[in-house]
Amino acid sequence: LSAPDYGLDAPRIIGSITLGIVFLALFFLVEKRSNHPMVTLSLFRSRNFTGANLLTLFLYGALAAYSLFLSLNIIQAQGYRESIAGFAFLPLVLALAGMSRWTGRLADRTGPRRLLILGPAVVGAGFFMTAFVGLTDGPQDYWKTFLPSIVVVGIGMGFTVAPLTTTVMTSVDTKFAGTASGINNATSRVAGVLAIAVLGATFLFNFTGSIGDIAAQSGLDAEAARALMGEAAKLGNAQVPEEIPAHLTQGISLSLKLSFVESFRLIMFICAGLAWLSAITASVFIGKNQYRERERPLLIRDRCG
């Protein structure tokens, strides 16, 4: 059975979600009662720590979905070779690496709050820009299509990563700095898994619906429509089945690519919303005060999430 064969009302889906919620509740109950907890829940009494982790949840979830679906888009829909697609993300990495040291020092002088509002807001703008890239003529169009938005995302992450890391580690007592860092790293990983699962299902639901519309508008018989719907799980690699009449092949092939791009656009809008939500979270939770003097040496411990 393929992925679209299960809906949210399927018993195994409902059961899995229910068990996940139960085990999560049990985890927090055990940690709260443990003398030596793996996750020290009292750390979340710090507004800065709680806000930084919520920001991480929203922003890194969006970033994980962005990275996955943009890769699928440029390889499957836009026709990039895998080797070239890898280089497409290089500007993001360079911007992040080049800016982190500078933004760490800036946060040391002015405090992290403004940077943690500005950074995710810029990242969201980059996601929003990406949503408007349609079908292109391949890698030769990269410079005027995907590159500008990727650079914007890289600049936004450059504003964010170092101040976020330092906020996490300086918002608790020094003896808990390692624990705080570990919790934040775990939060970023969980965010990526959750975002890919939820947004992956959202993408597939939307893409499957679009293929259903293509089948209906093309006047396909039941067998041909069923064969076409079976291609949905392949996402951008969906092909026109042999059951489709030859005179419809070219038009349906183009429609599949366009439907993929439209579903990708929806995911980018959601990612932009998550990034902007993380900026709002920073404005609500992160304090205006600068780092305490005794914690300044911790600023050298920059990492990338």
Can you give a write-up of this model?
By secondary structure, the protein is mainly alpha-helical. Helix content is 70%, strand content 0%. The chain is built from nine helices and no strands. The chain starts with 10 loop residues before the first helix and ends in a 20-residue tail after the last helix. The relative contact order is 0.17.
Structure summary:
The protein has 305 residues and is mostly helical. 70% of the residues lie in helices and 0% in strands.
Low-confidence stretches: 290-305
- Terminal CA distance: 36 Å
Percent strand equals under 5%
What Rg is obtained from the alpha carbons, in whole angstroms? 22 Å
Mean pLDDT: 89
State the shape. flat
List keywords for this structure.
mainly alpha; 305 residues; disordered C terminus; flat
Topology overview:
Elements: H1 11-33, H2 47-77, H3 82-88, H4 90-110, H5 113-131, H6 146-170, H7 177-217, H8 222-229, H9 246-285
